[in-house]
Amino acid sequence: MCAIYKEINAGEIKTNTEMNTSINQKLCALAESDYKAFNEKLIPTNYEIFGIRMPALKLLAKEIVSGPDIETYLKNAEFTSYEHVLLYGLVLGQLKKVPLETLFGYLDPLILRFDNWAHVDTIISSLKIFQKHPDEVLKHFMSLKHHEGEFTKRVFVIVLMDYFINEKQIDVALKHLTEVPQGQYYVDMAIAWAISVGLIKFYDKTLPILEQKVLSKFVHNKAIQKARESFRIAPETKEYLNTLKIK
């Protein structure tokens, strides 16, 4: 793919095609073959993977946000590779002054392009503006709770994990985590991960979920496994959690 891009003149970008060509040139320049091979083993996706490290993608996202063509990019970006999708999400995470509804307008179509766990986890965690608007965020993403898509549903779970497992929202987070339909691998893994974070941060509130065995066997046991792998849980607590495993 990278070989098809020709150099364009420096200066102000005048067309959508030139803008995307410029970005593609930069992505190709950042690609590493060894990292490409590593990611291809780690991330199942239908997108082509260039092999670009996250710090480099974040720097490119900052460059795009601070440049003169941010609006053109947001409306006309292409999504032909794994990194194109990631880059767009990282750009959204850098938008500090846009109204939340405007941000949702760009993010919602992007979410439908997710086909792997890394798109979900990386992009959702970059949207720090969500911390300031928990009610609006929960209301907006509630429709994904029962969505048929595996990665759209994972978005809902990761939103809960990243922005609702805190002093004010922990009860809301745990309620919804136990209600998300289970049975899809990447959804189940996300729920287990979120419950383990709940155990680490709010053990007394989260423990009843395991004691009452309200999750599927897979999610229940995986949550215990992930919690027991944490250095932030005492050895004696890990031993008790081990007794709660479903045989």
Describe this structure in words.
The chain is an all-alpha fold and 247 residues long. 64% of the residues lie in helices and 0% in strands. The chain has 2 domains: 1-129, no CATH class; 133-247.
Keywords:
globular, 2 domains, 247 residues, mainly alpha
Shape: globular
Q: Structural class, from helix and strand content?
A: mainly alpha
Q: What amount of the residues lies in strands?
A: under 5%
Total discrete domains: 2
User: How many beta-strand elements?
Assistant: 0
**Average pLDDT, to the nearest integer?**
94
Uncertain runs are 3-14
> Strand count, sense and closure of the main sheet?
none
Radius of gyration, rounded? 20 Å
How far do the termini sit from each other? 50 Å
* H/E element sequence: HHHHHHHHHHHHHH
State the helicity in percent bands: 55-70%
Number of helices: 14
How would the blueprint of this fold be written?
Elements: H1 16-30, H2 33-42, H3 54-66, H4 70-76, H5 82-94, H6 100-111, H7 117-126, H8 134-141, H9 150-163, H10 170-179, H11 185-201, H12 203-211, H13 217-228, H14 235-243
Helix pairs in contact: 3-5, 5-6, 5-7, 7-9, 9-11, 10-11, 11-12, 11-13, 13-14
Quick description:
The chain folds into two domains: 1-129, no CATH class; 133-247.
